[in-house]
Write a structure and sequence with these properties.
The protein is of the alpha/beta class and 500 residues long. It has helices at 4-8, 28-40, 58-61, 73-76, 91-104, 200-210, 234-241, 246-270, 272-284, 289-295, 314-320, 405-426, 456-461, 480-486, and strands at residues 16-24, 46-49, 111-112, 115-123, 128-135, 141-151, 175-177, 192-196, 215-220, 226-229, 308-311, 324-328, 331-334, 338-341, 346-348, 351-354, 367-370, 373-374, 382-383, 387-388, 394-396, 431-433, 497-499. It folds into two domains: 4-158 and 360-499, FAD/NAD(P)-binding domain (3-Layer(bba) Sandwich), CATH 3.50.50; 169-354, FAD/NAD(P)-binding domain (3-Layer(bba) Sandwich). Helices cover 29% and strands 21% of the residues. Strands 1, 2, 3, 4, 5, 6, 17, 18 and 21 form a nine-stranded mixed beta sheet that branches. The chain is globular and about 65 Å long.
Amino acid sequence: MADTETLTRNTASSKVEHFDVLIVGAGISGVGGAYHLTKQCPGTSFVVLETLESFGGTWLTHKYPGIRSDSDLYTFGYRFKPWVGQPIASARAILDYMGEVIDENDLARHIRYHHKIDSAVWSSKDNLWTIDATRTDTGEAVRFTANFLWMCQGYYRQSQGYTPEWEGMESYKGKIVHPQTWPEDLDYKGKNVLVIGSGATAATLVPAIAGDCNHVTLLQRSPTYFIPGRNANEIADLLREIQVSEEWIHEIVRKKILFDQEAVTRRCLTEPEAVKQELLDGVRAFLDPEYVEKHFTPTYRPWRQRIAFVPDGDIFQGIKAGKADVVTDEIDRFTEKGILLKSGKELEADIIITATGFNLNVLGDIDFTIDGKPLNFADTVTYRGMMFTGVPNMVWVFGYFRASWTLRADLIADFVCRLLGHMKAKGKKKVTVQLRPEDKDMPILPWIDPENFNPGYLMRGMHLLPKRGDKPDWQHNQDYWSEKDELPVINLDDAAFKYE
């Protein structure tokens, strides 16, 4: 059991439940982790704790119109569960898919909803995590102990999105809304709406509401890249026509998409200008070249930020039809009627939607303590973006920027199951990663290289994240195509792993 101070806290909790593994979060990673534990580690006791009232994470919390994936579901879906719908899917379709995974594999009995974790305390004396949580539906304090923590809580704060503090916001007479906390009763019909942002959320919102609004204006500081295309997969459609099984279709289409994505990712580094022109040609198929040059031509090379797929070019069709337009400028301040731009132009709006990004959430905003000392995550060095020096018996799932999140969630699940089996075979209760003697003079760097990837939420939260080294073992390389071969063959007896 954990230390005396931990035991005396939260005295309302009279019952302590113990599990071999505690999974934090019932989103795409947590549900996948639960599946893999049942298949690869039969007999392992585990529980999934979820703050929300149901499973789904992002796909449950985001309620804004048109909410959809920006990755294809053949790769964003699990490798073990065929996807049979359109490649770019709605939140509802993704939730239905996850629900099928839960039902088909009897996972519901392992998931506890309305459980907000407050603290996680590790005791090396007992080789045990003690997790204190609060039932959000009853207010009851509950406690769990676990041998191993599997952090699947995602990467951003669910309760509140990021909105910059602009001068004059308090003087604006209309409504200001962030997509992440979309009001159910928001009436935008017949209204003039201004959407601030240039990413996937903005590109989803604009076409979804344009038909009901009087007019929608997308205001962006700078352009971003998009990939317009049909929301269909010709290979999948052909294989279904000749009655190939869905399992085979899923595997074939998934491999083809990953093959093509690898080629594009590589070309973004070796011939960025050619890729840029190809991406812009996709937009020019819908809009005049002058409009594309002004509003859809980024200054950075492709893939320094995530590229969203735009099904059927819907946002571009809305612009061409006159239902929406784009303004590329910077905000000077808010006014009573809207926004004054630095160019001197004022944009009037009844509703302003700030599609301005996320607040990074490090370790689920949980208060972590290791042997009586508060954990400062930024003081650790990451082992392949999933374990951290000085943090025992814990693995963290953080997906890919340039490929689907779930690809890495599946790979890490394999690693966790293999690690748990290895510890059991060795008769060990504790594993911690540590820098090896040959790593002692290794440069310690920020978690990600901003020259390669620099979205706003990461730049704002970089100081909260672990450090990386300059060796492959000590960094999250963000490359699925190398990790799919490297992670399965990690030497679990390498000196980087310390067992006790």
